[in-house]
Amino acid sequence: MEQNWIDIALKVNVKDAEQAELIIGESTQYGIYVEDYSRLEQETMEIAHIDLIDAALLAKDRECVVIHLYIAENENPEESLAEVSAKLKGAGIAFECSTAAIQQEDWANNWKQYFHPLKIGKKMLICPSWETVEDNEDRAVLYLEPGMAFGTGSHATTCLCMEVMENYITPDTTLLDVGSGSGILALSAMLLGARAAVGVDIDEKAVKTAKENAARNGFGADKIRFLQGDLTEKVSGSYNLITANIVADVIVVLCEDITSFMSEGGLLIVSGIIEASEAQVKAAFAKNGLRILERYHKQGWLSFVLEKAV
After folding, report:
1. CA distance 150 to 116
2. Which among 193, 175, 160 is positioned nearest to 261, based on CA atoms?
3. What is the pTM for the complete model shown?
4. 204 or 134: whose pLDDT is higher?
5. Coil, strand or helix at 290
6. % helix / strand / coil in the chain, to the nearest 5?
7. With contact defined as beta carbons under 8 Å apart, do 244 and 177 qualify?
8. Within a 10 A sphere around the Cβ of 32, how many other Cβ atoms?
9. pLDDT in tens, 175-211
10. Are the C-beta atoms of 234 and 227 separated by less than 8 Å?
11. Helix (H, G, I), strand (E, B), or coil: what is residue 63?
12. Is 18 in contact with 82 (CB distance < 8 Å)?
């Protein structure tokens, strides 16, 4: 029987958007969708290199961001809304809220109008599975359908992680991606020439989506595998490159055992860290024998490249 969902839309000021995204994202296993038009003109020029923008988009609110949280109708959305509201109020974040009932088919497809081919870094082009690329401009093309999993490349944290990662992929790279979502990082690594990749995610739907995306891009289980598990509980072996595009609190936990999966000379790339959490993750790095090699910044988000401390 087709599931019904409740779309909880929380409107916050742009200045509070990053912290609100973090708080709201922790309250659902299904992911969030963010409407952010604050940098519309700039991002349009950066991505599409044009200044002609649809009038309906130009009319969007630039001072606020709307964060959509999806809860199954039979999973007590009222309780989830009360929890999120309490957390936002506790953080001193003002917000407006509205709710709407939607069908699963609508939820699974409506976001597609916002997902278009996207250049990332110097080497990658992310393309929705329902579109085609006429000129890839010598970029590796990843055909992707996020489904109900997080990861289209459009979010600053994913984009930042991919931009950093492309500097480290070689034909000898064996990659582990913790919190793999749609499989975007592991698949990008393979398209950039990595030898093999493993992705792990706690969400069964994400793992299913990632496997479908692997097949869509011509990769079998001999090249890339996706596992369902909490962080590294199902992981074995060692890897010379590990990526984790997740939130700061989870990165802190991940640091406790991640070095045991890093090969000699291996590197760890973490992303998804807001500036306010920088001190927290740096303390976790130091405590668990990880040394910072590089620090990157994009739209208020941080990414670090780390190695084992000698």
Report:
1. 16
2. 175
3. 0.67
4. 204
5. strand
6. 35, 30, 35
7. yes
8. 19
9. 999 998 889 999 999 999 999 999 999 888 889 889 9
10. yes
11. coil
12. no
